[in-house]
């Protein structure tokens, strides 16, 4: 029997640099790897969406739509894949449906193939319109389960959610583990359960590597029937990033599974990013492996956020109280998965509770979460806290899909964008400004100046290295000496680094 | 059914710092973790042997026997474990049997419980005496399979070797993967094969993490019946080291296996070494993950050795030729596993072959390897090369156990040691000098001065950090500014690092 082929999604161009280097990688540091990525045999290449759009215009003076067209041109044989936050698109609020349709349409037009659609609360209503839009333009709509652990989250619940996504027309299901919480046994059980319940639906598994355990989870997911798994080329892997692509290949050798990836190509991709990564060192997290989240349930990024909030209030010593408060706030809110934006909303409220008394002051965002303006969570919200939110904000709780409250806005968004100096009058620019109204105007104004990389140049790196290790006099070395020290003779070889 | 208990061997005190920081960790940086390690519920604590003995006297002015007694005292409830290179003990030549007996006897007397006995060539005759000596003193004799990949190494071959070790009285079998080459499928097959062939013999699995894939191998080994696996606490893990202990615990949660480890204790051990590790940063390798060995079969350390040999000869550009030569030399030598010392012997000969013509000049060590003076390999040696070795060295090939050629040497070794200034007249000192005659005399002379750590102090680290991040004027920050740059306003927060 020939081995079963396991598809691989390469993350180097999107989530890997988002997770490892604060989404700072410039297109110019990616283009030279594209030919090899395109020929390596991946199922798809994740290269757009998530935080890359925001980062491109905010930090890099790059037009994200241009980046997408570049990828399309350089990787003609690949499925390009993006991460799309459902009704939020790539921004931070809900958009009216026509904006969602337009965004999907334009993304497809510019080259996108696979849309991984998710919602931070796992509320299917927040994913429905985006998925319908993807299907309408004939592209691949992938429905997403955000994996979390809580008293109300069960394997059966995830299987049920998969069914809702399939009912909405999902062509495949992504099991997305952004906090590296997915342990091998639930990975197996969820994938197995979906396959047994709904037949041979395609399942993609996305895990971060922070806890050091998730390559095993990918193995068990594959054994349970997963079709595609996400990895990042080794030189862009590990820590808060993802498992290394080459390790996945090696993991499956000799088993009844194979990736069919071209190792020669992978090594060239690896060598490319091995040179690029040091240029972004200042943006890198120092985390190598961290299993704390299994006990605290608090993702690393959320923890450091709360710590700096406390410090800013001169209360850095109260982090333990805040960490104890988080599970209570999370439970009151109906057990939302702790990812952007719910992690910030819950974390900030926990800080407020500790500093000012429980729910004495609510953030506007937390009140909105309690009142249903982000959608529904799996758990019941605490009715007393809902009442407090209503009293503090004078807003009524809602039960409908949040976007249903929004009036048509496309025409107004178009007017706003067209009025901006430097806007090029395209629908792409309308969408850019719609999603990032605080950043896009300045970006439009400076776009003509072209991309401004925040990476260090190779010359800078070389100069720094020399400064750090500079010897007053160069030697041609290696030169060997016998050195007697503390009575012991040592053979010493000296050479320039 | 209650889950099956998987034993864990903690490596932080031996192989972890040997692999991550060139074996430089001083006892003073370990003692404060011992109480927690002792109470965490490990199957054993590897804490001695390997390169630690050499390193202690060569770099740290520490008496290794004293270190062992310290561990014994601080971890009264733990099985202490060591790595023992069979007839080589901890040195670099074969010793006559009585020296082997004495070493094992003294190690047991000073507190050792579990002796993991291995031979670089997997020649059982080189392990037999040490294992018999361990059994004689009533301690745990663990026979070891060094895992490698070659045309002559098969799953069946490893199973057969396990049988030979059991025949020699091994109380357990270690499957030792020093190059992180053990992929999940062979891990499963070998462990399963041993269990099916010999019944319920205890199997310990030791993997490095260099290739990023071996936590999966541990999972498959456990599924196949492995009883104990080796890991290192997360703050002393990964890279050329080992898989993180806490990740192993998380990996097994919810499965039919459990480690039974006390997570509170583990976190205290982690926090301890999290503080210690930066003190040894200058000794750390930069390797995070490296899967090259799967294609090249050349361990990272061996590769960098060959590269520096080539550079010293002004032939740094010929590394590709040398890498192509290695498999040929390895095959000629009968496919020895490439570990210390065989990796150096094969690698240096490959360099010589490229620089001077194939086997025009043989190193003494390579000739000895070809003539049987290190023992037998699994493969056939190339008869023509054996003949060349004989011609160049005027030595005859042997087929007997190398140590059988050695005359009694204990009395002479005793005399030598007793004559050294600073020797304390103990059999321990005789053994120290016997194993490291080039280092022990100077160590004895300076021993009274006490340990000399090569770690940076916390004050030094703090000073370096301050120097690196020094601002000309200190600010108390964080201070927030609105900064307008290239037409865009940014909210900027400034604070001292």
From TrEMBL, chains A, B:
GO cellular component, one term: cytoplasm
Parts forming coiled coils: none
Signal peptide: none
Example GO biological process: gluconeogenesis
Assigned keywords, A-Z: Transferase
Ranges of residues in domain Pyruvate carboxyltransferase: 6-267
One MF annotation (Gene Ontology) recorded for this entry: pyruvate carboxylase activity
UniProt cross-references to PROSITE patterns, sorted A to Z: PYR_CT
Listed PANTHER family: PYRUVATE CARBOXYLASE, PYRUVATE CARBOXYLASE, MITOCHONDRIAL
Name used for this protein in its record: Methylmalonyl-CoA carboxytransferase subunit 5S
